[in-house]
Predict the structure.
Amino acid sequence: MPNIKVAVNGALGRMGATVLEAVAGESDMTPVGGADLRAATGAALPLPNGLGKVPAANDVATLLDSVAADVVVDFTNREGAETTIREAIDRGVRVVSGSTGVSPAAIEKARQLAAEHGVGVISASNFALGAVLLGHLAGIAARYFSYADLVESHHEAKADAPSGTALSIAESMARGRGAPFTSAATDVETLAGTRGGAYKGINVHSARMQGRVARHEVVFGAQGQTLTLIHDSIDRGSFMPGVMTAIRHVMTLDHMVIGLDNVLGLSGDS
């Protein structure tokens, strides 16, 4: 069985540290380095749970120049993801990115670079298998309902709202329905923004609080009935089976794939 050498960008963050630990526990993968703005280049980065140490760098380009990586996993932010994809593709290193907020123009540029260089890239807004299935099922249900609200809540440190996953779910719902939903208007909104943001008739609401990792709830409404779909990520370990699946799958790609649903065969782009 081939051994996949994995580097992590954002290695000192909560998700990055979880990825390093998960990779170290896989029989067909080896963690080879971690990059983070808070890391000291040339230092050794301890793996979680005393599993050893790997080289560290304070930027992804320096790391990829100093270690032999097959795949770099990125959990940073929009700027970090764009830099990681560009620098990794330039070095022939595949990318799995869970960073959200990347602009459509940057996604298209990354898609072109991946195709030109024949380097696999997977970018997904969520790696929890249940959350991906929620988006898929919401797209199926959407054709049967006229009204829909989407509520997402995350930990207090999440920078963007709504979540990238919420936007992906809303897009799936809009595609499934094939037309805008009906958004019930109120005559008086006594607290501005109470109805949330709007995406093709779907009212989208965001909450940020301590104690929460990630929760997505879709409520469909029709005459005399509602349908509610909910997914909760209780801890960051919920994302690791999806990340490990993406690492293995990206090794087979020579182009860019958007969304874990495509990796799982739930739609046509794989």
